């Protein structure tokens, strides 16, 4: 592995994406709550992350990069908005 050059490992965190796999697990009240509050469709996540990924490749950066779509601040603010104002209720799944 010492002969490998110009390889950089990056970390990509898309958060919760509304896929068939995620939606199939929406069987509990808690799961429905978090999917409605935190999940986004794949095209929304891709619209945000793809330009960032391309800019890293284009820049030739040799530093590892951590790209996040759903940051901690964003997650907490969406949870707070839901609890305080009812935002994102029944967004994807009807909640009990």
Report on the structure:
The chain is mainly alpha-helical and 96 residues long. The chain has one domain (12-85). 49% of the residues lie in helices and 6% in strands. It contains four helices and two strands; from the N terminus they run βαααβα. It has helices at residues 20-24, 29-38, 42-59, 72-85, and strands at 11-13, 66-68. The protein has a two-stranded parallel sheet with strand order 1-2. The radius of gyration is 17 Å and the shape is elongated. 6% of the residues are buried. The model has no long low-confidence stretch (mean pLDDT 94).
Helices and strands, with pairings:
Blueprint: E1 11-13, H1 20-24, H2 29-38, H3 42-59, E2 66-68, H4 72-85
Parallel strand pairs: 1-2
The low-confidence runs, each spanning 5 or more residues with pLDDT under 50, are none
| Global shape | elongated
- Rounded to the nearest angstrom, the distance between the terminal CA atoms is 54 Å
**Mean pLDDT over the residues:** 94
């Amino acid at each position: 592995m010492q002969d490998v050059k110009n390889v950089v490992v990056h970390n990509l965190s898309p958060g919760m994406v509304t896929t068939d796999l995620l939606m199939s697990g929406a069987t509990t009240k808690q799961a429905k709550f978090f999917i409605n509050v935190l999940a986004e469709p794949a095209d929304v996540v891709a619209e945000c992350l793809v330009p960032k990924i391309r800019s890293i490749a284009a820049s030739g950066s040799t530093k590892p990069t951590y790209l996040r779509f759903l940051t901690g601040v964003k997650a907490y603010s969406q949870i707070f908005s839901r609890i305080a104002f009812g935002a994102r209720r029944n967004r994807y799944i009807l909640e009990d």
